[in-house]
Amino acid sequence: MTDIWTPTKVGNLEIKNRLAMAPMTRSRANPDGTPGSLAAEYYAQRADLGLLIAEGTQPSDEGQGYIFTPGIYTEAHVEGWKQITSAVHEAGSHIFIQLMHVGRTSHPDNTPGRIRAVAPSAIAPKDQMFTLEGMKPIPEPRALTLEDIGRTIRDFRHAARRAVDAGADGVEIHGANGYLIQQFFAPNANVRTDAYGGSIENRARFAIEVAKAIAEEIGAERTGIRLSPGATLGGLEEGPEGPDLYRYLVRELNKLGLAYVHLMHLGDDTLLADIRRSWDQALIVNRPGRALQNVGADIRAGMADLESYGQLVLATPDFTARLKFGASMNVADRSTYFGGSAKGYTDYPTLAAEAAV
């Protein structure tokens, strides 16, 4: 029987186990978007997992939403990420960098040059954003023109190339969690009347074009995508057509031969089964809040090729060792999730360190 310890393939990579680290924003980059000095240690500590998916990383100035998130589009960014990818490879794992354009989930205070956010349509999310001056209402974004859409796709393409230049094994397109790509899916955020709005096919078009561009640039085997069907983050409402949009989208993406789909599964088991049947490459399933005793359940049931974990891995560098020994996991310190130093980042204890003490 296939279990979490059975090796597998993602694209052309041999993956030593079926556990993946989910991408998690930690807001510890330098102000220019270069990854911070502790990031290499942080990721290498967790390299016992078969695949690490790095935190959301903006492909352009315009794509930034939060303070101190990393970028991957300048030479400085590339040099910073090289330290991380080298450390992960030396520790025996593989790493994909997640490309995250937040769209309307932004505030000018958090971007270089105080850039106004862009989105499919000029509709604000009715939410607030943390800035260095505290919480502020998110202002109305500017609707992307057709020229803007083409430029944004080129930004994704450029960032993917830069990620590979930095030694990443591939990139994950962030098409989930209320950010730009998912904003195109949701009728309450996308009221366009051109080729990118209205029908399911039109609302899925931007995601497909981004995936095509990146696959052409770095290879489909190095390209993954994260999706979160039904997620309402950022005030999105996908409506009754939502599941059918994802069925169509996955079928179209499957034609490209991408390395994987990374699915944040929120309970629609029928949709999960349909995606499983429609997808020929690796399927990574993330179930938020999955109980520890259920680790590996989707793999054993044949519903996933890998399972990804976020908070448990954030707090437990030796996650795989503790699973093998049946040891308890560390408790995550939520106060240190975003920003700060080594505390709550690289100082979580391991079984080996505790034994040495």
UniProtKB/TrEMBL annotation:
This protein's record includes keyword Nucleotidyltransferase: no
Domain of life: Bacteria
InterPro entries, A to Z: Aldolase_TIM, OxRdtase_FMN_N, Oye-like
Gene3D superfamilies per record: Aldolase class I
Domain NADH:flavin oxidoreductase/NADH oxidase N-terminal: start-end pairs: 4-326
Required cofactor(s): FMN
SUPFAM superfamilies xrefs: FMN-linked oxidoreductases
GO molecular-function term, one example from the UniProt record: oxidoreductase activity, acting on the CH-CH group of donors, NAD or NADP as acceptor
Keyword entries, A-Z: Oxidoreductase
Cellular compartments per GO CC: cytosol
Keyword Oxidoreductase: yes
Family per similarity comment: Belongs to the NADH:flavin oxidoreductase/NADH oxidase family.
Protein name per Swiss-Prot or TrEMBL: Alkene reductase
Organism from which the protein derives: Aliidongia dinghuensis
